[in-house]
Specification:
By secondary structure, the protein is an alpha+beta fold. The protein is built from twelve helices and ten strands. It folds into two domains: 136 residues, Endonuclease Chain A (Endonuclease, Chain A, 2-Layer Sandwich), CATH 3.30.870; 124 residues, Arc Repressor Mutant, subunit A. The strands form two sheets. It has an eight-stranded mixed β-sheet, sandwiched between helices. A two-stranded antiparallel ribbon has the order 9-10.
Length: 274
């Protein structure tokens, strides 16, 4: 890509990949649509080479909605943790979503199923735009991302629960387009409980892990377990311990779940829930 040239593509991720390759030290992303934020995180996570720092300035409600998806949020958290992404919120709306670098300003325009980045590299305009939006970014409120980084989730799940459960968690997550729990994909707590049940993990262990890593509280794990148990997706059996009340071992409660592989577990579970 040559900075200053217009870009036309079928998908926004193609444009983002091209821009990231030539962006230099920083890319300012101003007032993007939800889909652009999702693809920015996806492309940034898989980007090979030196990733410019991603300074994302967006409407708070838009960011909250996008980050309700565990897949997007946990990958965004990895980028934040690595120092590659900073997210801030603004109530000021741009006429078009903008990609701003030290060398070019690009307005994203969607027409049907195609997207274009209409670009200028006129030096005086680019400098003024970059300075203005950098100043706006610095003055904006940081966006508080509460989802833990996916790399930390995977590492601690492996260490504290076991490699088979971690492998199943990865497989289930990879089979989903989104993980919201609103009928558009299972949420992260439900996924954790299902793979724990597939591997017959104790409820205490998976809920303690989930609370410690920052996925959800033990109480949320317990409520979700009860819901899945009521739906027949999960069963429990009591396991005596030396001191105190018996603990509950999680097991899959439906033959259709027990007989399926991890890459189909989410799909079968969704069909049973709906």
């Amino acid at each position: 890509m040559v900075m200053g040239s217009n870009l036309l593509a079928e998908r926004i991720d193609d444009i983002l990949s091209s821009v990231l390759t030539e962006a230099g030290d920083e890319l300012l992303v101003v007032d993007p649509a939800p889909g652009t934020i999702e693809q920015l995180v996806r492309v940034g996570t898989s980007f090979e080479g030196d990733l410019p720092h991603l300074s994302l300035l967006a409407d708070e409600a838009v960011l909250k909605d996008v980050m309700d998806d565990f897949i997007v949020a946990s990958n965004a958290a990895d980028l934040v943790d690595a120092g590659d992404l900073t997210m801030r919120t603004t109530e000021e709306r741009a006429e078009n979503a903008l990609l701003v670098t030290g060398e070019a300003v690009m307005a994203l325009v969607t027409a049907g199923e195609r997207v274009a980045a209409l670009s200028t590299d006129e030096a005086e305009f680019v400098e003024a735009a970059f300075d203005a939006y950098r100043e706006q970014f610095e003055a904006a409120e940081p966006f508080k991302l509460r989802t833990p980084p996916l790399s930390r989730v995977r590492e601690t799940l492996d260490d504290e629960i076991g490699e088979p459960t971690r492998d199943d968690f990865d497989t289930v997550l990879a089979s989903l387009q989104t993980a919201r729990g609103d009928g558009d994909g299972l949420d992260e707590v439900t996924i954790s409980l299902l793979v724990a049940a597939k591997n017959e993990v104790l409820l205490y262990d998976i809920s303690k892990w989930g609370e410690d890593v920052g996925i959800a509280s033990k109480a949320t794990f317990s409520r979700t377990k009860t819901k899945l148990e009521d739906l027949g997706l999960i069963d429990t059996e009591k396991v005596p311990i030396d001191v105190g009340r018996p603990r509950l071992r999680l097991k899959l409660g439906d033959d259709r779940l027990r007989d399926t592989d991890a890459n189909q577990l989410a799909g079968v579970a969704q069909s049973l829930i709906s």
